[in-house]
From TrEMBL:
It holds the Pfam family MFS_1. Gene3D superfamilies: MFS general substrate transporter like domains (1.20.1250.20). GO terms for molecular function: transmembrane transporter activity. It is a multi-pass membrane protein. This is Major facilitator superfamily MFS_1. It is found in: Membrane. The chain crosses the membrane at residues 12-32, 52-72, 84-103, 109-129, 141-164, 170-191, 203-225, 231-251, 271-295, 307-325, 337-355, 361-384, 405-424, 444-464. InterPro entries: MFS, MFS_dom, MFS_trans_sf.
Length: 472
């Protein structure tokens, strides 16, 4: 009896430590990303870029994450999830360490490219929870992982805005470098080894085609809004995007061990969840890209970087709180109530932008509603996705889902960049000339957000319909 109690206590302690380390795989990247949000106008000004090119700063990480997330999941299934997680986290450590020493926009984008490889490992954290935790602990574990997005955002906006305001944006990288290094060491030392299923047949070609397709898409969008005549190259870039995308699907259908198991797409619920993830992430990053300009621009509130944190911090708390509550609800009841509630909260947040007078308080209310709703919807579709595939394919399924999330996150800032570049004006601030967006750009972002949330509501209806009667 004492040995059983001792083993139970040791397992319980391991689950606590492991969940904390898995959560940090999400929390630290989110903290890093949200720390940079307040610095976007400053970085664009320092490197003399603006509009659509400046919109690459956030999505380049997600571009790599979108391409490599399913690949990371497949590698984890083949070689062991802990081993692959540590390799990908090593790239994140390297990118974080060098990011603070970027000398121009291109070096910064390259270092963020390395960070993107690390972010691609997040599906493995979900798969490890499914692999190593007892069945009854999995929904709550997934809820805590989902809440890590909000916790990371909270920490990032809370401290990032002040760090940037007092010490500059490079200080965020200097501070995070030892943190990510210690986290990697802890994962290597404390996480139990995971099983290997197959050590051959890795789909390198499919991953490369997906990466080229997404990169070409971003380049074509950028070139379309280039005023120097380079827009003529947008059509060849779009052609490369389409061709490499078609090659990707062709390779995946023929590969023995594909990066993305397209057979999962035969299930309608998987297709609908993937589409929902793309739209939720797209609108989230669209607004994340827009909010700092609303707060700091002369056509907005004309406040300093610290207020970006003050406005967005309550929303991060709402996300961090709502996600585990949604996981707890789904463990006992169905997903229908929370997923609808979350979608309507997102819609209400976007609509209130056109109703409330613009102020710090009104923007904070808008962000609380939107972020809380986003956290609920994300938790619900993650749990439904994992329950819709066999346990041995959870890494592949979460890889597919995180690719969808990253594709949406990649597209969101690009769409915002188009809006911000289409409507801007020159201002003289502190004796320097700044090119900043006007109020019309902000209206476009939130108006497009309303349209996307209406589509999300339709997809939520389909998710509930296709998953009805399935245990959560």
């Amino acid at each position: 009896m004492k040995e059983r109690e001792q083993g139970s206590w040791e397992n319980g302690r391991y689950y606590t430590v492991a969940l904390a380390l898995f959560s940090l795989c999400i929390l630290i990247p989110m903290m890093s990303e949200t720390m940079l949000i307040a610095a976007l106008p400053v970085i664009e000004h320092e490197f003399s870029v603006s509009g659509i090119l400046g919109a690459w700063i956030l999505p380049v990480v997600l571009l790599v994450g979108a391409a490599f997330a399913p690949f990371a999941g497949t590698l984890g299934d083949c070689f062991g999830r802990k081993k692959v997680l540590c390799i990908f986290l090593s790239f994140y450590v390297a990118g974080t360490f060098m990011g603070g020493f970027a000398w121009d926009i291109w070096s910064l984008l390259f270092f963020r490219f390395l960070q993107g490889i690390g972010i691609a490992a997040s599906p493995i954290a979900y798969a490890l929870v499914s692999e190593q935790f007892p069945l009854h602990k999995i929904p709550m574990g997934i809820g805590f992982l989902a809440a890590s997005y909000g916790a990371g955002s909270l920490t990032g906006v809370l401290f990032g805005a002040y760090i940037i305001d007092f010490f500059g944006w490079r200080a965020t990288y200097y501070i995070l470098s030892p943190v990510v290094a210690v986290h990697l060491i802890a994962v290597l030392w404390l996480i139990r080894p995971s099983y290997e299923t197959n050590a051959s047949g890795i789909d390198w070609k499919g991953t490369l085609c997906l990466f080229v397709s997404l990169l070409s898409l971003m380049i074509s969008i950028t070139l379309l809004y280039d005023s120097s005549g380079a827009f003529l190259w947008a059509l060849p870039a779009m052609a490369i995007c389409i061709i490499s995308g078609l090659l990707f699907f062709y390779i995946e259908r023929r590969a023995d061990f594909p990066a993305i198991d397209l057979s999962m797409l035969k299930k309608p619920v998987v297709i609908v969840i993937s589409a929902t993830a793309i739209l939720v992430s797209l609108i989230t990053y669209l607004l994340i890209q827009t909010m700092p300009f609303i707060i700091q621009s002369p056509t907005g509130l004309m406040l300093d970087a610290r207020f970006v944190g003050l406005v967005m911090m309550p929303g991060a708390v709402a996300d961090m709180t709502a996600s585990p509550l949604a996981g707890r609800w789904m463990r006992r009841r169905s997903a229908k109530v929370p997923v609808y509630l979350g979608a309507f909260m997102m819609l209400a947040g976007c609509m209130l932008y056109f109703v409330l007078p613009q102020s710090v308080i009104s923007l904070a209310i808008i962000w609380v509603l939107f972020s809380g709703g986003m956290g609920i919807v994300a938790t619900c579709y993650m749990i439904i996705m994992i329950n819709s595939v066999p346990k041995e394919r959870t890494a592949g399924a979460t890889g597919l889902l995180h690719s969808s999330i990253n594709i949406g996150g990649m597209a969101g800032p690009m769409v915002a960049g188009v809006f911000l570049a289409a409507y801007n004006a020159s201002f003289t601030i502190g004796g320097e000339k700044w090119v900043l967006p006007t109020e019309e750009a902000f209206d476009l972002s939130f108006g497009f957000g309303i349209f996307l949330t209406l589509l999300i509501l339709l997809l939520v209806y389909l998710i509930c319909r296709y998953s009805e009667g399935k245990p959560t």
